[in-house]
Amino acid sequence: MTVSASSHETGKSGLRLLASNDDTVRAWPGGFGFAKVGANYGPSLVAQGEARARGYDQILWLFGDDCDVTEAGASNFFVVWKTHDGTMQLVTAPLDGGIILDGVTRRSVLELARTRLTGSVEGLAPLETVERKFTMAEVVLAADEGRLVEAFAAGTAFFIAPVAEIHFRGKDLNVPMGADGKSGSYAKCLKGWLQGIMYGRETHEWGVVVDEM
């Protein structure tokens, strides 16, 4: 494998993720991987440091013999792909295993996608929003078959950050980044909607205006 500089060092806009090895686990069922507590972050810092030393921005955490995709660093991970029947899907890991953080950004992304991307909007094809287990093998197959549309991480600190590359078992997967080379179209759209709500540019039930005293 060739070690290259991280996206921050090269000026690339997308994250470069290093898929975790079999002997590295972020969270186990029955633990507290679903909760925003310090113990979820401390142990992962060693792995993150190793990833950065190899030129990557974060770890893409996999779980189990099937390499289920879970999270990217301390953020939720999303992919947009086309199914074999041509359906465009937004896919992220489910909460029922107890190892995925139920973050507010994750919930916001899912709700906006389900309410606003069911039809064509801003030139984007409708999305089917899916929460299910999916494996790294499925991501690799989608990339190899040209069905992988984009991927992004979503979290409190990262907000919404596009993914440009995933390294998995000696193979580099280049993730499409959209026409501007900076972000996938769906991630850019969702991020814009969230920012509009956060900064009061859009009237929405999530945004409460507090008058100055």
From TrEMBL:
Give me the reactions it catalyses.
L-leucine + 2-oxoglutarate = 4-methyl-2-oxopentanoate + L-glutamate; L-valine + 2-oxoglutarate = 3-methyl-2-oxobutanoate + L-glutamate; L-isoleucine + 2-oxoglutarate = (S)-3-methyl-2-oxopentanoate + L-glutamate
Transmembrane stretches, start-end: none
> InterPro entries per the record?
Aminotrans_IV, Aminotrans_IV_CS, Aminotransferase-like, B_amino_transII, BCAT-like_C
Which coenzymes or cofactors are required? pyridoxal 5'-phosphate
Record's keyword terms, sorted: Amino-acid biosynthesis, Aminotransferase, Branched-chain amino acid biosynthesis, Pyridoxal phosphate, Transferase
In short, the EC number is: 2.6.1.42
By its UniProt entry, which Pfam families does this protein fall under? Answer: Aminotran_4 (PF01063)
Record flagged with keyword Isomerase: no
Tagged with keyword Ribosomal protein: no
Q: Which family does it belong to?
A: Belongs to the class-IV pyridoxal-phosphate-dependent aminotransferase family.
The record's annotation in PANTHER family points to: BRANCHED-CHAIN-AMINO-ACID AMINOTRANSFERASE, SUBGROUP IIII AMINOTRANSFERASE
Q: What is this protein called?
A: Branched-chain-amino-acid aminotransferase
Q: Which organism is it from?
A: Cryomyces antarcticus
Source species taxonomy:
Eukaryota, Fungi, Dikarya, Ascomycota, Pezizomycotina
